[in-house]
Queue: 2 jobs
Job 1
Amino acid sequence: MELSILAVLIIIMNLAGFFIMGMDKKRARNNHYRISEKTLWNIAFLGGAIGAAAGMKHYRHKTKHAQFKYGLPILAIIEIGLFTYIFKLLA
């Protein structure tokens, strides 16, 4: 049960990370109020780095900012390792 709840939370955070990158890109194109970088990083640190990195690549958003270009993929790799370890531990 704990494992399935954790899996659902990880999926939700990664979907949020992916779609929030798309929302911010759309807002940037339309000159609307933007989602703060702090919010983008908070979602990534709370388990959504894989989705945020995928969204960054898919939407071609924040790819010129070094902290996102290198930081999000590194954080995503760390999260993959952490999630793998946790799932093996709980299984």
Job 2
Amino acid sequence: MMRLHIAWLAAPALAFFLLVFALPLGVLLFGSLRGAEGWTLAGYADFLGEAYSWAVIGRTLKLATLTTLICLLLGYPAAFAMARTRGIAQSLLVAAMLLPLSLSVIVKAFGWTVLLRRNGVVNDLLVWSGIVEEPIRLIFTEAGLLIGITNIFLPFMVLPIFSVVRQIDGRLTDAAATLGGGPFHVFTRVTVPLTMPGVAAGVTLVFSMAIAAYVIPTLLMGDRYQTLSTTIATSFLYLQAPQRGSVAGVVLLAMSLVVVVGSAVLAKRLRRA
């Protein structure tokens, strides 16, 4: 009886989850199966039968994958640097990661449109350092998009890894070194497996947000750079094709779930190994 009363405490959270998450997904799924002639899979056949749709899917996966990899390469050492500092220095580094999260994605994306233009700060630094002789085009290019989206999503990679690294017992690496392990061996066989939960969480967060990003590609690349998220918006707002937009949404959701579940399983296996 007591367990039943305790279970009821989860009812508000469950109702909220069903209302704001499960119900919209259900509507999206039914919309992808509902055409002018009733229930049909023609929407999936039409969408997946177009070469243009596969190009959009490939572009979406490419953007999300590159963003996740760059964030991981930059965020992994940054998380260790934050975890190894102490006192006020660590507080300042954590604040530097958290403060940008208080700004809207739209504000940050607009900021990068200013920084990346020909007379912006980025081009000024490149010319001043001698890397380039004259300003180069960065806005409305994939390079500029990767710079902006990586900067915006980087905290979501650093913070989960940082939270795990700071809990690692330093005596474990000392013990491994005492037993004859070299720095590379200790790092790959002890440190990396212990940080896998943080890596999996960071990869899941960054990939999920990058694959569904709409505002950032629209502002930094324009409407000509079509991803699944922009295809969904175009289908509903301009083409008046709700079934096509629903199909694209379901495809986007399926891709996200595959990567999220796959990264969690892979991280679990690597940690066991």
